[in-house]
């Protein structure tokens, strides 16, 4: 007979893992592992929008939880996994960073992103202003309006950039828009969907992939409509090519700041932010550095393998899950912002990154990341992957 209190604890663990952005198949493994430590047999089925718990020893009692699509809370994910390993009754609380620090992190991401990829000083300055507008949109679109935040932010950014361009500023219009909304790129959803598909969790993988494509659609059409509205109101401006005016050592300084800002936004623990710094560098520059003359698709495969290997190895050392350390690199590596780069290059002949054809082979990017993940995970035995990598 299952104690109702134990059943509730098991359900609470599953819900916390789901809210924090854990991949569905990993939720099932973690919950079953936790239940075994409590001496309870449970069958778990997790999807991107629900978690179900069946207790065979309790006349097949079933608990079903309908969940909202997961956000990203790396701190909650880490604390939940720590609770699983410790098997204690510590409350899984929410410990956010101060509001002013979170706001500063949101505002700093667009200009730092342009510093990392290389852009003009004028564009970098305007990116900080756009970061403020995006932060305001996030404060407006909360609760039931949360699904509107990506489209509204992209729309406001598009109108504002059109006004800036019409005012005579020579900025890469689409590149500036992309930098402003890069945080909305569903990097973790893409990573989880590819991982689920790679391990034959087809329902969850397909659902997460569709969710990510929906976000991409809102971002792209929001920018497109915003630019058209802005040009109608303020007049057509110049779509200037991107010019790299960044001094060589700026990206070296900007990279840890970018990683720290991402960690604050996703509520990661300071120790995890520091440990994830190498994957941020790999995610940004790996496809170019690690191509070894064979092209950026090959570089993406090698980079994905290196990021997954590092994140999985470190997760084993820390008794956590690899997503906590892989996430920052995946945000820049997956066909997220690069899909938008490719769209602008195809439709408007405007490229932000100094890689020929970036984004034009989105399928190859997906395939390279899947191959990289499989390559890395295959190096770990089934015993090591049994709990979760």
Give a quick precis of the structure.
Belongs to the ThrE exporter (TC 2.A.79) family. With 389 residues, the chain is mostly helical.
Fill in the keyword field for this structure.
2 domains, 389 residues, disordered C terminus, mainly alpha, 4% strand, globular, three-stranded antiparallel sheet
Outline the biggest β-sheet.
3 strands, antiparallel
Distance between the termini: 32 Å
Give the count of structural domains: 2
Nearest-integer average pLDDT: 81
Structure notes:
- InterPro entries: ThrE-like_N (IPR010619), ThrE/Ser_Exporter (IPR051361).
- Keywords: Membrane, Transmembrane, Transmembrane helix.
- Belongs to the ThrE exporter (TC 2.A.79) family.
- The structure is a single chain.
- The chain has 389 residues and is mainly alpha-helical.
- It has two domains: 4-86; 99-385, no CATH class.
- Helices cover 66% and strands 4% of the residues.
- The chain has 17 helices and three strands.
- The protein has helices at 4-20, 24-37, 74-86, 99-117, 121-140, 149-166, 173-181, 187-198, 202-234, 250-265, 270-275, 277-289, 296-318, 323-333, 337-348, 362-378, 382-385, and strands spanning 43-47, 50-55, 61-66.
- It has a three-stranded antiparallel β-sheet.
- Helix 1 (4-20) packs antiparallel against helix 2, helix 5 (121-140) crosses helix 7 and helix 6 packs parallel to helix 9 (202-234).
- The two termini are 32 Å apart.
- Residues 354-360 and 384-389 have low confidence and may be disordered.
